[in-house]
Amino acid sequence: MKHMLNHKLLKIRNLKKYYPVTAGLFSRHVGDIKAVDGVTFDISEKEIIGLVGESGCGKSTLGKTIPRLEEPTSGEILYKGTDVAKLDKKGLRELRREIQIIFQDPDASLDPRMTVGDSICEPLIIHNIGDEKKRMERVVELMEQVGLEATQANLYPHEFSGGQKQRIGIARALAMNPKLIIADEPVSALDVSIQAQILNLMMDIQERLGLAYLFIAHDLSVIKHMAHRIAVMYLGKIVELADKRETFDNPLHPYTEALLSAAPSFKSKDKDRILLRGDVPSPLNPPAGCHFHPRCHRVLPICNQQEPELAEISEGHFAACHLYKSL
Ligand code: ATP
Ligand code: SF4
Ligand code: MG
Questions:
Q1: Beta carbons within 10 angstroms of residue 1's beta carbon
Q2: In sequence order, what are the beta bridge partners of 11?
Q3: What is the pLDDT of residues 25-53, one digit of tens each?
Q4: Is residue 235 part of a domain?
Q5: Could you say which ligand is closest to the alpha carbon of residue 16?
Q6: Relative to the CA of 296, which ligand 2 atom is closest?
């Protein structure tokens, strides 16, 4: 599958989102949870970027800061060249038409008291699009696009299965003709048997409508078919970023190696399984030097002293690791 990934849709530069932590009677500022800690990458039009990493590494926070559902602490987000930080209310509304988020839990985006037809229609009403007839036509079109029957528009969310509810969530996200969908673990809550159906639907829609996705997942296997590039995140930072094939065939960062090794289907026969020891450390108090060093199976003496920068090791393949410094 060849894709023309030339037009940049989104540029993110050194993005940070810190949550202040306070203590004591006077709410003294004692530190920050560095949920996103200096992230830089681009998303091209029609590109699917898979964002992976363990729980708590900052994937959702990164996703939410892009349409400013969370205000960034610092850094730059440029959407089609426009600085998102400088948008006024109207500009922000426009931005949130073009950038939609699909959440893990489809119930979270559906009002249980509204029929699903009304739920899908709601963004059209909020943004004052079309008259009633046009909106109804659009709802029918959207339901069909996600594999639901138009006759189901009058039903309530509880009358649908988890997979169907996620289809409704997707239809709602598509209502505004977005350019970028941030899909935050959209299949994690679903039965394994349903996951593939929803992933296929999302791929199909992406191709048909020419959308870009930032597809967040815990697990590399979820995005194995879908992503064009993969960003691996660890404690608020991107530690490896490369084409999907490169990531799977030639992972550079030991954390990526460990994630691949943990997924049974990718375990290469001639390599021993790499065990990822311990949990992700707290982003409030990350380890010195390379944040991954206490868990790294290739740790060097320098690793607890100096933090490695994300550097381009070969064309388009970025990694933040001292192993590759002299290359
Ligand atoms: P998961 O895979 O479990 O969804 P994640 O990678 O999406 O995890 P985030 O939800 O982005 O991780 O959280 C990153 C860090 O920021 C965590 O330590 C989390 O506790 C913290 N965090 C997230 N939201 C807030 C908030 N509103 N206030 C304070 N801390 C927060
Ligand atoms: Fe491991 Fe050192 Fe590379 Fe960090 S910098 S991933 S500790 S080898
Ligand atoms: Mg999350």
A1: 5
A2: 42, 78
A3: 898 999 999 999 999 999 999 999 999 99
A4: yes
A5: 1
A6: 1
